[in-house]
Amino acid sequence: MKILIVGSSGTVGKAVSSRLGLDHTVLEASRRTYPSVDLTSDDSVRELFEVIGQVDAIVACTGTVPFKPLRDLAGSDYQDAFNDKVLGQIRLVNIGRDYLNDGGSFTLTTGILAREPILTGAAASMANGALESWVPAAATELDRGHRINAVSATVLAEAPGYHAFFPGFVPVPAARVAAAYAKSVEGTHTGKVYGVEG
Ligand SMILES: NC(=O)c1ccc[n+]([C@@H]2O[C@H](COP(=O)([O-])OP(=O)(O)OC[C@H]3O[C@@H](n4cnc5c(N)ncnc54)[C@H](OP(=O)(O)O)[C@@H]3O)[C@@H](O)[C@H]2O)c1
Questions:
Q1: How many domains does the chain have?
Q2: Residue 161 domain boundaries
Q3: Most buried pick, 80, 109, 126, 174, via CB within 10 A?
């Protein structure tokens, strides 16, 4: 398969790229690659696909959200979280469907905060929850055999900077999280949200 991975230089993306790169041709993209892509821009996403052409699977390992105490989260913070994590990945699907071969798949990234809150994580929880509601809905209407799933992992062992914000959560190795992306890409499921927890 020819697989586009957006966000492949990140903590999650690196592991996903290594795992899928074992058996497939991986095309890596982010704001700092060539060709580059910025998921907050329709034009940028279209330009990327015009350069790389048709693919068999599209994976997003992106999503930046502000972490702040609830009382400090302004409307603009929620908007930023929504624009980047939610609309960025939805944009990749909306535009990417024209460049995804029949029977191809989308795999998006959410996270455990959709179901287990932490202090300062309300905007992240909102974004993850929105995507986790959207993915099963989108799956019912995608055509040409396209599938869509999301991976919703807990904090990674390889992200120690976050561990103090996740008291009592058991971090998982990135390789375990990457296996969930492989299940989505190489399997048959659609409309699923794969939880990965310690
Ligand atoms: N780290 C964890 O423990 C963990 C656990 C569960 C879920 N998650 C989720 O996984 C996702 C990725 O997290 P991470 O920790 O791997 O983040 P990260 O290390 O900061 O990596 C983010 C990746 O996305 C790219 N990117 C950022 N904004 C982009 C944009 N607008 N357009 C295109 N690419 C963009 C970055 O590259 P450029 O800067 O070059 O664009 C980078 O490759 C997030 O949604 C996060 O909530 C993370």
A1: 1
A2: 2-196
A3: 109
pLDDT at 186 (0 to 100): 98
> Quick one: which of 81, 50, 52 has its CA closest to 64?
81
CA pair distance 169, 171, nearest whole angstrom = 6
Ligand 1 atom with minimal separation from the 36 CA: 33
CATH value at residue 88: 3.40.50.720
Please choose from 36, 61, 151 the residue to mutate so as to test ligand 1's pocket, defined by most ligand atoms within 8 A of CB: 61
71 contacts 21 by C-beta, under 8 angstroms: no
Q: Give the chain's end-to-end CA distance (angstroms, integer).
A: 30
Q: Which helix (H) or strand (E) holds 94?
A: helix 88-96
Among residues 132, 118, 55, which one has the least CA distance to residue 86? 132
User: With bands split at pLDDT 50, 70 and 90, how would you rate the model's confidence at 24?
Assistant: very high
pLDDT digits (tens, 9 = 90+) for 143-184: 999 999 999 999 999 999 999 999 999 999 999 999 999 999
